[in-house]
Amino acid sequence: YSLLTMGTALENTEPFKAVFSYALMRDEKGAEMHKSKGNAIWFEDAAEKMGVDAMRWLYGRHNPANNLNFGFGVADEVRRQFLIPLWNVYSFFVTYANIDGYDPAKASAPPVKERAELDRWILSELHSLVADVRDALDNYSSERATRRVEEFVEFLSNWYVRRSRRRFWKSENDEDKVAAYATLYECLTTLVRLVAPVMPFVAEDMYQNLVRATGNGKESVHLDDYPVADASLIDQHLSDAVRLAMRLSSLGRAARNKSGIKVRQPLLRAYTKLRTVDELSLLGQVAPQVLDELNLRELVPLDDVSEVAEFSIQPNLALLGPKYGPKLKDVRAAISEANAQQVQQQTSAGQSVTLGEFELLPEEILVSATDKPGYAVASEGGYTVAVSTEVPDELVLEGQARELVHRIQNMRKSAGFDIADHIATYYTGDAKADEIVSVHREYVMQETLSDEVAKAAPPEGTYVEEHDLDGIKLTVGVKKV
Question: Which residues, in sequence order, are bridge partners of residue 467?
Fold first, then answer.
């Protein structure tokens, strides 16, 4: 109000066109902040302990119509869920770019249309993000802008980088590797310019190292141009396909966890029930990604969920009793006569269910599922994934080899080896240990950067650990070459 008054009186003009503000700020429990209560947080303390960028992001992602519950706990959640994953992606890029001597100013990347599907997908998501963030900020919706950025960082970290790791790890600097570097570099440099107004200090730090250090860019990220979306790179069909792959992979992991079978153990097949016929047409495109994510050999469409699970339904009496009163017995009778599987499909998709004269909301019906023998099933939002829990001997052996690789990778870290260090691996064990190594020797060597895997007592100076792989006892030693 002071600014408005002074601007009008002194300059005969309004000093601003719009005011963006919040409701009330409370402590983490929703109580009013008071010095006498001891729950007040001074700005200097907040800036020192939680960091001003985390504080700004906390404000930016909040719905301004609601009270803001402010405190060190919620700021730490912002750090863990957004800032740290973003910084980890940045650190991943810098680490491997330094190892390979990748210079974005000199490297010549292939055109986007010639890059891998994974690259084209994340660039499509990136430019959709840019369009959405610009629109959100133009309409004073910082909450929508920051939430979309968080979603993109989740895609970048937990799908693109994780699924691209092998492309960065491989020793040869081929066109595919250069394309991966160029794609991740574009994502990061665009992202830091996109978030700079909300997160100025972290964005500046990353910009100086990613852009200024190469001799390009402006003196500061805050002097650079704000990103503009390239509509030609947005592929909605590809985006829909990959999001389906992520959804099925998430359900598949839940099913595997339910069965107690680790993801490192290969399985023969999984069955999936999709929500629409259109999505079924995408299954062939996304199947390789899902198979790789879930360590499967085959992904089979499922027509009827009753092939892998049995469903039962009950009324949610806590909700239906007060709503229907004396008619509750009629509701219970209608539910008892309903097709449990059809009800499950409708409620899992968030749809209401009409049973006789009653229209019931999804939360008013309790659906329980029992997996049939030989399957572990997970369902959500109208989608179902069922993994076959029968594991043939050859896949058991492959799973043990993957577990051995995992143990050796952890040994590399414990021994203090660098990411790029080549090693020699030694082991002693019984005939079963010999079978694991002999059948999967090349895989073990490639995954652990072992120049050799020898059955021999570890020489002096070797880092050694004892391991038990499903009852197979062996001694493993690793030594830097």
Answer: 474
The angle at the Cα of 256, spanning 254 to 258, to the nearest 5 degrees, equals 70
H runs (alpha helix) in 338-380: 340-348
Contact 3, 16 (CB under 8 A): yes
Six-digit token pair at 190?
Answer: 């665009």
Which is nearest to 387 in space by CA: 247, 266, 288?
A: 266
Q: Is 220 helix (H, G, I), strand (E, B) or coil?
A: coil
CA atoms within 13 A on the CB side of 375: 20
In what helix (H) or strand (E) does residue 289 lie, and over which residues does it extend?
helix 277-294
Round to whole Å and give the CA distance between 291 and 266.
Answer: 10
Report yes or no: 439 and 402 within 8 Å, Cβ to Cβ. no
Query: How many CA atoms lie within 13 Å of 38's alpha carbon, on the beta-carbon side?
Result: 0
Name every residue whose Cβ is closer than 8 Å to that of residue 324 and which is 6 or more positions away in sequence: 330, 331, 358
Residue with token string 């260090």: 421
pLDDT tens, 214-262? 888 899 999 999 999 999 999 999 999 999 999 999 999 999 999 999 8
Residue 395: enclosing H or E segment and its boundaries? helix 393-415
In contact, 403 and 292? CB cutoff 8 Å: no
DSSP single-letter state for residue 111: P
Q: What pLDDT shows up at residue 276?
A: 82
